[in-house]
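Listing S7. Sequence submitted for prediction.
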Amino acid sequence: MNKSVFTGNSYIKGVSMVMVTLSLWGVLPILLKIGLDYYSAGTIAWFRFSFSFTILFSFLFVFRTGCKLLRHPPIIGILGGAALAANYFGMTQGIHLSGASNAAIIIQVAPLLLVIVGVLFFKETLRLRQLMGIAIAIIGFYLFYLDRSGNAVNNPNYSSANGWVLFAAILWALYMICQKQLSIKYSAQTINLLIYAVAMVVLIPLVEWNEFFRGGVVGWFLLIVLGLNTLLAYGALAEAVECIPLSLISILITLNPLITLSGMWILNTFGVGPLPAENISWHGYLGGVIAVSGVVLVVAFSRNKVNLD
């Protein structure tokens, strides 16, 4: 990609593609919450990786590229795959114990952790506006937490859910560090293939195999939709990276919790679907918006943007 020139058509295509990813990731927590009525967190996470690995491996095998890395995987690649597997499981478990909106907001701790890791271990500089963004995000997280802890139907489950999502956020930051190191030597799709393969193996002990026979048509439909969500989101993201700056992609992607909040509000307000009401008050929504705004500010002024592909 020519990083210095972005033509009108290329820019429109890039923004369109990143909006596809944004939308898919925005509805993902909602789909996961529905899917958890049919399958356990381990089963869902394993199937998403297995589905993605099968499709990507078939594609790369046909074009005879990228598959050799599986024969002699680097240690950092194995670590990255294990980290992302734990991230998927932790996030799904957090959604199961609380709700889609709660997990979508709390997971926004992950980009903040990545910035802090960059400062502590990679000698990156933390700008004043980023400090302001962190402060704003903390205020938003606190307001959201106060609302959710007061309205949560089961407080012990809520605390446990937050623990799982924070665990997922930490592991996501670890995955991104591994991915950043791998991207120096390998292509994005080659890395993805290795990550999917490792994660698929790591999650095998958590799979409830009998659930595949009990899920029925609806359950299998949801699994396939979740698998396609992963493939299409990353596919659209790869296209976007070729068309628009990573800085813009980073900012837009961070907005995905707002889609989750809006979607859950619509479903709960009009009684659509099988999902339980989340009982988020207006100051809970305000806290969520403030938290996301703070994270956007941190990401927008980061010197080293997250490598999203």
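Caption to Listing S7: primary sequence and predicted structure tokens for the chain studied. The CA atoms of residues 21 and 233 lie 4 Å apart. The radius of gyration is 19 Å.
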